[in-house]
Amino acid sequence: MLFLLLRIMCAPLAVLLGTLAQRRFGHAIGGLVVGLPLVYLPFLWLISLQYGLSFAHAMTVSLLLAASAEVALLWSFAALARRVSSASALGGALGAFALIATAVQTLHASIFLGAVLAIASFTIALRWWPRTPIATFHNGKSRLSLRLAVSTIFTVALISLAGRLGASLSGVLDAIPLTSLMMALFTNHEHGAAASSQFLRGVTRGSFSYVASMIVLAEMLRTGHVLEAFGASLGIALLVQLAIQSWSSFPSLRQRLTTLSRPPRLMQAHYRRMYDFLS
Which of 11, 98, 132, 246 could form a disulfide with 151 if both were Cys (CB 3.0 to 4.6 A apart)? Predict the structure, then answer.
């Protein structure tokens, strides 16, 4: 009973943290928080305790292999939500997920190939992300209680199916980013398509850490050391995300330093006159 309650709490907790981050820092940062493996690592830990390490390992591998399908879903929803209704965008995004997930499963890809495909998919999606105007977060318009209730229902539904479908199929099903998708739907309804697009782009940026954590977890679960495996997975996720944030802020930092080091126009003219005089 305790395991069941803990597993049910994983998704609502991620929704709570993501919504609070949206309110405080904007849609992109809220999506980045949701994109971190804050739901999957506790969920897989509880799975390993209830069903064993072999089941958790197989499920982790399936989650990693389905990451490419996940980014296809996120990108498709962001692209479609600008032109069609939320329901139509949701249908198209789920169709894209099913198509890519089936293709990856047909390939019988290894963990390494699945990781390469996932990283390439995230990079391509961010490079050609659908352009939308900048959207701001309007306080007081997010129905937090409804978000938490819907995420709890989704979690209960997944838990009821996890043990019946087997590790591989459960992993593919759990790879559907229901938390991200549900929050994108609410964000689209409350703040518009531009806001949901920014949120999903943040989720995609945070998903690099998700892929890294799944790779480490899949490899270390083979050793049988559960706490070390999940601790290392969480640590590598935080390090990867820190590196991505540092790399993203580097161009703006470099531009700022260049601006500070560049002398004003008046001084430039003075230096030029001195150079002409001396030469």
Answer: 11
